[in-house]
Amino acid sequence: MSATLDGYTSFKHFLISSPAEYVAHVEINRPEKLNAFFEDMWLEMGQVFAKLSHDPNVRAVVFSGAGDRAFSSGLDVQAASQGGVLSPAGTSDGSRFATRARRHIYEFQDSISAIEKCEKPVIVVLHGISIGLAIDMSCCADIRICSKDTRFSVKEVDIGLAADIGTLSRLPKIIGNHSWVKEVCLSARFFDADEALSVGFVSRVLENKVKAIEAATTLAVLIASKSPVAVQGTKEILNHSRENSVADSLRYTAVWNSAMLQSSDLSAAMLSGIKKTKPRFEKL
User: Fold this and answer.
1) For residue 109, what are the domain limits?
2) DSSP-derived secondary structure for 116-146
3) Out of the domains of life, which is the source (predicted)?
4) Can you tell me the distance from the alpha carbon of 52 to that of 17, in angstroms, rounded to the nearest whole number?
5) Helices (H) and strands (E) in the chain, counts
6) What is the reported pTM?
7) Structural contact between residues 235 and 119, judged by C-beta atoms closer than 8 angstroms
């Protein structure tokens, strides 16, 4: 049974609960529209993950979509087509339109990147329709789990654009097979859970959404039981190593740990191993 998490009831488009101590569960809450996103939603999502990042009562996050049919069907194309910042109306000057569009795309990118920048590990649970923006968001998560019924697609070329919110930047670094990455991105074809597992996009496939959320929650509870200093440092260093050379990452790790090894968590964890007891770590 999930409990409420203090300080998150004001969000309109996301349900945030706590299924276990130090674990948050974030649900996209627009199931009647297959959890399709419009501008207010992605801006709010950025705020949710920024808040979770600094919340000492949260050490791991499960991220899923409400309803049975979709994690997310991506961008609400109908809402996006009804004017807004990307509409060329209002100016005939190409440079001014481009400047406005670029700022808008940066804002959108920052909202989605908040998942990746969250200091706490994020486990995403994909199910049903998971296309377009769903891939952008899941690429930002630390761990991806899905149900057998998941249908994935990098859908953007089908609506006349190159994906610009993160998939084309992150997916090639997640999947080592660039031929496969280019195939799915250029064709927008669907691929299923088994194919996602075979190329390494997801780490586990469960029978259905309920079992996938159970598995994600169990993993989140395990992660949350560890030292938050160690867990958050591990995420930070792994993300740094993805973008930098081995030599640079080793140097960064040395600097990071020269500060973070001063934590009392180190002795608490070591003593618990010797005494065969379960350690308790202070909030971070």
Assistant:
1) 3-224
2) HH-SS-EEEEE-BEEETHHHHHHHHSSEEEE
3) Eukaryota
4) 12
5) 11, 11
6) 0.94
7) yes
Same domain membership, residue 210 and residue 101: yes
Residues 157 and 174 in one domain: yes
Domain identity same for 238 and 202: no
List, for residues 115-167, the tens digit of each pLDDT value.
Answer: 999 999 999 999 999 999 999 999 999 999 999 999 999 999 998 889 989 99
Higher-confidence residue of 2 and 26: namely: 26
Q: Which two tokens stand for residue 238?
A: 């792994």
Separation in Å, CA 67 to CA 19, 29, 35, 183: 18, 8, 8, 30
Assigned token pair, 223: 């992660």
Same domain, 170 and 52: yes
180 and 53 in a common domain: yes
Per-residue pLDDT reduced to its tens digit, 62-97: 999 999 999 999 998 777 666 565 565 666 788 888
